[in-house]
What does this fold into?
Amino acid sequence: MSKYIFVTGGVVSSVGKGITVASIGTILKSRQISVTAQKLDPYLNVDPGTMSPYQHGEVFVTQDGAETDLDLGNYERFIDVNLTTESSVTSGQIYSEVIAKERRGDFLGGTIQVVPHVTTEIKDRFKRLAEKSKADVVIIEVGGTVGDIEGLPFLEAARQMRNEVGRDNVLYVHVTLLPYLNSTKELKTKPTQHSVNELRRIGIQPDIIACRSDYPISEEIRNKISLFCDVERKAVIPLTTVSTIYEVPLVLEAEGLGELVVNKLKLKPRPPDLSQWRELVSLIKTPRQPVKIALVGKYVELEDAYFSVREALQHAILHHGRDLELIWVSSETLENSGDDSVLRTVQGIIVPGGFGIRGIEGMVRAATYARENKIPYLGLCLGMHVMVIEFGRYALGSKEANSTEFDAKTRYPVIDFLPDQKGQKIKGGTMRLGNYPCKLTSGSRADRAYGQSLIYERHRHRYEFNNEYRQRLEKAGLVLSGLSPDGRLVEVCEVADHPWMLASQFHPEFTSRPGHPNPLFRDFIGAAKNILREGAQPPLPLPSNL
Ligand code: GLN
It folds into this structure.
């Protein structure tokens, strides 16, 4: 039977619960304990797929096509598992399920209430994931901050679990923030005490408190939290801010969290093997020569909108023993100013996914720049549409080539809805989502990158390469290097007469892991690091007798 760890957050949001969950997973896995993770999101959307990235950051897509919170990406990268739709639970899903059951008559005669009907539905989701994954430990992150109205049913369900599955099988971890007061130069514990009180009011006494802080946490502070919040002194875990998120498992392990969890949950004690993580972190901390990459997108003010892209770039950069110098270029600014001088010093250009017309012409401009100046280019989903539009304009000799997403009446719809998609009106969950197979064209860059002819990658889009333009674009030098096995859909394409200009209809960023960079990201950086831009020449070695 699986055991459960519930991770709640106190004091403020964005306190690092997701990374804490992922890191607890890492340290348990390093003891050969199998783990999986689940995120509970208190909002009423069924999934974040319909939300703007400004509201919620990136939408992470699982292999089975669930549109989920970006924390799931961190769980996958840290625990190195492929999660499924059961790992993402929202209030919207819970309520629509309970109401659908009521309409079907499943509760005939009863009054449907938050307790027990909604909480039972929530607990069913915990158990469903446990059964399906057969993991030794299911780590569940309760989204939001303790004290929010929306989060109450989730916390109540978490509380009920301890009685239901037994005291040794459930653990509560509370992650809080210790604010620093500059005037008195001290960390304050009062907000933590209050949020623990709030948890207790609901009936949850945390077993472990992880304290985030930008400053070192003294023994005195640990003792104080232990006393006021009624947790063992060793269960007050300091989580001082570190320079890379990949260091968090090492910090937690050094503070004894692994042993604590194993003892409290009566798991089999085994020594942890975190050697790969140590190597990874020491590599990240070693000074390396930078590779300068421009990310040209619409949501660049909010870096979380491209969370997995940035992580995948990091994995690829580390593989090449280099450092990432990422510049965020607003496609809208590029479009409005018409000035592409920011691209003059970069060694690679990446155009990630996105929706809507805003900034598209800026992205096309970046693609023109990459093609004409032979700068490596990687296009992800929308980035492929942009590359095809740009190449279409060049090959067809008309500025009108476009996607019908941006110009419904274009004379050259190089990107379009497939004929069988045209009636689709509903927006939520109706995209082409999750893993689909792709056959790579032998000898192409994509084929060389993956080293195998059939691959599976994750999708999230509506529009496709328009097959009517295949021949004309191929003739002008576009290589269709990946197709769906039935040959109907273009999955990857690349520019023949170019050092490395490639784009995929899928999102390769979702399958990249530290230590195993996605092959397209790896080869993109491999090509970019060889590009020498003005001002980037390494200093000449001076003879010693000068
Ligand atoms: N807007 C495009 C489509 O719907 C691309 C989507 C994306 O980049 N994820 O097809």
